[in-house]
Design brief:
Order of helices and strands: HHHHHHHHEEEHEHEHEHHEHE
Helix content: 40-55%
Strand order of the largest sheet: 3-2-1-4
Oligomer: single chain
C-alpha cells in the first residue's frame, strides 16, 4: 500500500500529464480508488493545496510555455484544459504579472530595468518595474544573468539603466548586514505568497526547517510544497529562502547553489542581529 507521499506524487504526475482531461475529485477518486474526501485531505496535507489548486498552478505554467512558444491565445488557453478565456482575464495579473497579449509576445510592452554588479558570490542582477523589484539573481557569469532575464521576456523593453541603481545598491547592502525591506513586483499562487511571507518573518541569522514553515502557514504536512515555493522565489535575498533548511539540519536545495546558501547562512550567523540595520526604501 503506498504511503501518503507516494499517492500524492502519483496524483501530481497524473494531473501534470492530463491538464486538458477531467481532473475533478470524482474523476481522481475513480482513477486512484481512494474516496474523494480522503484523497483531498491527504493531498492538502502533503502539498499545502487542493488538487484543483495544484492543477491551476500547472495550467498557469503550461500557459506561459504556450505563450512564449507563440501559440495563439485561445489555443494556448484551451490546451491547458480551460474551455473559456474568462479564466485568465478575470485575474491575469496574479497569473502572468502582465496582460496575456503582452506575455504571448514575450513581454512586449513591459518595461523592465536592470543593473548588474560584482558581489561576494559572483555577479548580482537586480531588475525592477515601475512597481518594484521583480528579479534578483546571482551567477558566476554576468552574461548568464542577462540572458536568463531576456529569455523570460524576449520582447519586453529590457534596458540596462542607471535608474535601477538604487535598487541594486539596496540589495548589495545586504552583504554589509542591511535588512532588506524593499518594494516588490512579483506574482505567485496564494500558497506561495503565504510561504514567502512566512520566510520573510524568519529573523536575520536564524533558520527554520521546511516542516516549520509548513506549520507556520497552517499546512504542517506540506513541507514539499514549501520547498517548491522556495524554488519559485524570484527575488532571493529579499525573500530570504536561504534561511529554510531540512529538518535534519542539512542545507537542502537552493536555486543559486548550495555553496552560496552556506555562505549566506554563515555570514548571517557571524553578525549579531543587533548589528543588522533595517533598510527602508
Amino acid at each position: 500500500m503506498p504511503t501518503k507521499e507516494e499517492l500524492v506524487e502519483k496524483i501530481c504526475n497524473y494531473i501534470r500529464s492530463n491538464l486538458s482531461g477531467d481532473l475533478t475529485l470524482r474523476s481522481l477518486e475513480k482513477r486512484f480508488q481512494v474516496g474523494r474526501y480522503s484523497l483531498q485531505r491527504v493531498f492538502i496535507e502533503v502539498m499545502g493545496m487542493s488538487p484543483r489548486q495544484y492543477a491551476e498552478q500547472c495550467r498557469i505554467h503550461a500557459l506561459k510555455g504556450n505563450l512564449r512558444n507563440g501559440k495563439p491565445l485561445p489555443e494556448a488557453i484551451y490546451s491547458t484544459g480551460y474551455a473559456s478565456q474568462s479564466w485568465l482575464y478575470e485575474d491575469y495579473l496574479s497569473k502572468l504579472a502582465m496582460s496575456p497579449s503582452s506575455y504571448r509576445k514575450g513581454g512586449e510592452g513591459a518595461s523592465i530595468r536592470f543593473l548588474t554588479s560584482e558581489c561576494r558570490l559572483g555577479f548580482l542582477l537586480v531588475a525592477e518595474t515601475d512597481y518594484g523589484i521583480c528579479s534578483v539573481s546571482i551567477a558566476d557569469d554576468e552574461l548568464q544573468l542577462e540572458t536568463a532575464l531576456i529569455r523570460e521576456y524576449p520582447r519586453a523593453v529590457i534596458t540596462r539603466s542607471e535608474s535601477a541603481r538604487k535598487s541594486l545598491d539596496s540589495v548589495l547592502s545586504y552583504f554589509d548586514g542591511q535588512l532588506l525591506n524593499l518594494p516588490m513586483d512579483i506574482s505567485g499562487t496564494e500558497f506561495q505568497k503565504r510561504v514567502w511571507a512566512a520566510i520573510m518573518a524568519i529573523p536575520y541569522g536564524e533558520t527554520r526547517s521546511y516542516n516549520e514553515v509548513a506549520a507556520t502557514v497552517g499546512k504542517p504536512k506540506a513541507y514539499r510544497a514549501v520547498a517548491n515555493a522556495c524554488a519559485s522565489n524570484p527575488i532571493p535575498l529579499i525573500i530570504p529562502c536561504h534561511r529554510v533548511i531540512r529538518n535534519n539540519g542539512e542545507l537542502g536545495g537552493y536555486g543559486m547553489g548550495a555553496r552560496r546558501k552556506k555562505y549566506l547562512l554563515d555570514m548571517e550567523k557571524k553578525r549579531s542581529p543587533g548589528n543588522a540595520r533595517r533598510g527602508d526604501r
